[in-house]
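Hey team,

Filing this mostly as a record. A colleague (T.K.) asked me to run one chain through the structure pipeline before their review meeting, and I want the input and output archived in the tracker in case anyone asks later how it was produced. No errors, nothing strange. Just documentation.

Input sequence:
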Amino acid sequence: MDRWPALFNERKIKAEFCRIVTADLLQSFLDGLDALMSSLLEFYKAAVSSNRRLTLSSVMQCLNKEDTNQNRRTAALLGLPLFLSEDTSDIIRMCDVHGETLDVLMKGKCVGILIGHEGVLHDAFLHEIINVAVVVEEAVVLHEIRDVPTGFAMLMGTIYCLNLQYPHKMKYSFEFLQKVVMKMNPDQCSARVHGLRNKLLRFCL
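Output structure:
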């Protein structure tokens, strides 16, 4: 942030990403997510029904309360690492905007997002998000992002613009977002991501 102070806002991250990749960050992310969203949610639903991924049940229950397109996007994103059996604790954190201090929330957080809400969180995610922030090296670099899907897009853009490594605990989720959702270097997938992509393609057919 000291070297590139003008970079850290949504508009500049989008512009820098477009300069590097020659693609619109938010559009490519949301278009790719929307194309796969229904299939991903069906996979999550099947995994819960077969008791293979019970951690996904709380994400899917949120859609039973309010099944909007925005909530479906959020469920698809928050459910992805759970479906891939990855640990989200150091990368995706929910926080009461009037509760814990930022120092506590960002401790040990190299790269990730904070999802701010008011009051006690009873579900996997709230329908009304107060604030989403991108964190790099225990510092907030972007904040006041309007929703979780945009927050994930800005996180991907920040990682790409700063040439950061994906967090090891969620490396497959980030690889999936980059190579399958955003279609950047799609032919260079790990076996795990390649397998999920092929299952999605077969399901869509």
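Quick notes for T.K.: Strands lie at 92-96, 111-117, 131-136, 139-145. Residues 8-204 form one domain.
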